[in-house]
């Protein structure tokens, strides 16, 4: 996915399980991690995380999302039916899993809490900027901060005849990387896919990011080497809208008799033919065109 | 996209416009082409088209879709909000564009009719098998046959902060290829994207299909060379569901006191730890894991 930070080399032997139930006494420096559905009040944080991702990928020139554009396009459907965001929160104190829930989709995805035992506590220089704005349960002393997110949505396989999930972005803030949180977020999407009877989870990776590729393969993913993404965007996409507008204009002209044989004005006929030619050239329908 | 048939080499000069309004007198052998939203009654035909696509791609071993699986997963949301299918119908007679509409989404996408003038009429050996089952307007003498389809759904760009469309499949039956119908279907999706204020239309192509790549580039698409698709499916995906079930079992065991310090049964404790280890190994949370 676009945001995958290069992971470290794989560890040959699995480490002992570190998962302990919330409420028990963990050893070392426990960090409580919670995955929950995003809430509209998380948008300012999500926006900042996406910007960090653009910085990380050196693609800030392509970054034009605003809090307003995110707010108006996310959260328009119930979770999992369209664009869905899981938020990763961390806290040095246990989450109050039975505390008040600020959003209404708790029943669709009860927050998933895990504990990671660290040798050293994490120094998060941006803790204040990413203090959890709500959207989840309370946590002792407002300790929780956003550490990452994953944005995904349903895709479809015609061969399987069933949906899957496409993971558009996975991002973990720098100081929380290489601690299993990326895996935790991606696993959460995979588990949700299985739970819903979906057939696939897909995402993309840069071909030179060999560490990320190895990590994804370890997670069970296959890398499809032969396929390339085709993208129609910007002016090239807008041109198709112009065809649409041209066709509308043409239709209107014909309705009022301009450009038809009924029209006696030669210039009007020429004008209509010009629009027709432009419309045809831009791809709506050409008798000699292909597939 | 998965179904792109190799198109012929590009024609250097644009051909004269062939689009004529329905109802006027076309020259040559006119073929009336209509793009409309699919209707549940089209599912048997869509299923056959997907199967033809699998045969064309020599991937029938991956084909497991049934009419029932398509029926239960398509048409669950209003058009354009989720999985959406445009049907391409052709007829040697004009469509009755003002005839009765069998489905309720006409206002969301009024059928788009165009005329293609051919030098020779098309011999369609499967015309009877693909006779239009309905879902659209009437057409003189039940002449209309399904010639192709495109299946697409919304995707999301976090950088743009807005949705786009992802084209999962585009397919035109063999005898209708190289006549502009693929372009017509893809253009219809692009126009709809512009109309909805979306930022991108994306699909995939096989890297060795140079003719298709050239065709897409001519249509304004950029081919993203560096990205690779990662796919988690089959047993590898199901394993994540097992983790989910293991965690559920573990939680239940702990609830009833098995495997905790309160439990005095050593074997029960060992069993719970084993589940915990398996669960952790399969990726839910490892303290030494990565990104």
Automatic annotation (TrEMBL), chains A, B:
Does the record carry Transmembrane helix as a key word? no
Keyword Transferase, does the record have it? yes
Residue span of region Disordered: 1-24
Q: Which UniProt keywords apply?
A: Acyltransferase, Transferase
Domain named N-acetyltransferase is located at: 99-247
PROSITE patterns the UniProt entry points to: GNAT
Identify the InterPro entries for this entry: Acyl_CoA_acyltransferase, Diverse_Substrate_AcTransf, GNAT_dom
Regions of biased composition (Pro residues) lie at: 1-19
Annotated Gene Ontology MF terms?
N-acetyltransferase activity
Q: Write down the PANTHER family for this protein, in alphabetical order.
A: DIAMINE N-ACETYLTRANSFERASE, GH14572P-RELATED
Q: What is this protein called?
A: N-acetyltransferase domain-containing protein
